[in-house]
Specification:
Strand order of the largest sheet: 1-2
Strand content: under 5%
Structural class: mainly alpha
CATH superfamily: Farnesyl Diphosphate Synthase
Order of helices and strands: HHHHEEHHHHHHHHHH
Number of domains: 1
Radius of gyration: 20 Å
Number of helices: 14
């Protein structure tokens, strides 16, 4: 992402300093955990989207950094809570918070991060941005619950799958882009434009994540995790809708009853591959990517726009 770093490299450094200050703990245990979180932080793609949306909407302001901080705090809080829900011991090659400090502390740390984000907005009067992100958090929770409900019945249709990922994943990226745009000059039309753009990118992002579970790329982690958790993702949904009744019955039985058997899980993966599930999911991912980039054609040409295009392509073409 050379161009992204050229365009917002300095602003990213300022954001990182701002984020570290935002995470300052008030007691030794909390401070130690927060330093651990900073050490294992990811690529910070969502703050990048906030900053670039702001640049393309009138310019980065102090409110932009607060918006990026709020988005990253909320995102980090959801990751900490997700690891507890999923009983995950590792994240990004590090031990998870719950693996090191147990579930009770992990839940409280997630709550702390959420409250820091809320206070960051309230204390600075950023109520419209808080409203944008609060709606996203509400949608994320509903999306996760809907996915859990469907995992029990395994009756999910493609339309429901897209409802789920728009809520649980795309909503936060959509909020990041909308908050960035709003922070530049409080223009509602521009805010809605970037809200839609972020949703399209977020859907493509989640499909890419779902493809990783089928070994499309060597990402250094086991495949078949979604199958073991009975998560019905697009490659499997497509296969179930397009295979013969005998194969469909076999796949559903494995997902319901043999999802912890590595050989059976591999059978599901192989069947999905042979029935075109991977290629279909890729085509849908590319469709959403194209729709997002087509929206950007409405903006004047600039280095900022080129950087945002580069970031979108990176999100879709990433190897992990």
């Amino acid at each position: 992402m050379k161009l992204v770093k050229q365009v917002i490299g300095q602003e990213l450094e300022q954001f990182e300093s701002f984020f570290k200050r935002s995470l300052k703990g008030s007691n030794p245990l909390l401070d130690r955990i927060l330093r651990f979180i900073i050490k294992r932080k990811g690529k910070q793609m969502r703050p990048m989207f906030v900053l670039l949306a702001a640049k393309l909407s009138g310019g980065i302001t102090e409110q932009t950094y607060r918006a990026a901080g709020l988005i990253e705090l909320l995102h980090t809080a959801t990751l900490v809570h997700d690891d507890v829900v999923d009983d995950a011991m590792m994240r990004r090659d590090f031990f998870s918070i719950n693996a090191l400090w147990k579930n009770k502390i992990a839940v409280l740390v997630g709550d702390y991060l959420l409250s820091k984000g809320l206070l960051l907005s309230i204390e600075n009067g950023d109520i419209p941005i808080l409203e944008i992100t609060s709606r996203a958090v509400n949608e994320m929770s509903e999306g996760e619950l809907l996915q859990m409900e469907k995992a029990r019945k395994l009756d999910i249709q493609e339309s429901i799958y897209f409802d789920i990922i728009k809520a649980k994943t795309a909503s936060l990226l959509s909020a990041a882009c909308a908050a960035g745009a709003f922070s530049a000059q409080q223009n509602q039309e521009q805010t809605h434009f970037f809200q839609k753009f972020g949703e399209l990118v977020g859907v493509a992002f989640q499909i890419k994540d779902d493809l990783f579970d089928y070994g499309v790329e060597n990402v250094g982690k086991p495949t078949g995790i979604d199958i073991k958790e009975k998560k019905m993702t697009l490659p499997l949904i497509y296969t179930l809708q397009n295979c013969n009744p005998t194969t469909k019955k076999k796949l559903i039985y494995i997902v319901k009853n043999n999802n912890n058997d590595p050989k059976k899980v591999q059978t599901v993966i192989d069947t999905v591959v042979s029935h075109g599930g991977i290629e279909y999911a890729k085509s849908k991912m590319n469709q959403y990517q194209k729709e997002a980039l087509d929206l950007l054609h409405n903006l004047p040409d600039s280095k900022d726009k080129e950087a945002l295009v580069e970031l979108v392509n990176y999100v879709i073409n990433r190897k992990y």
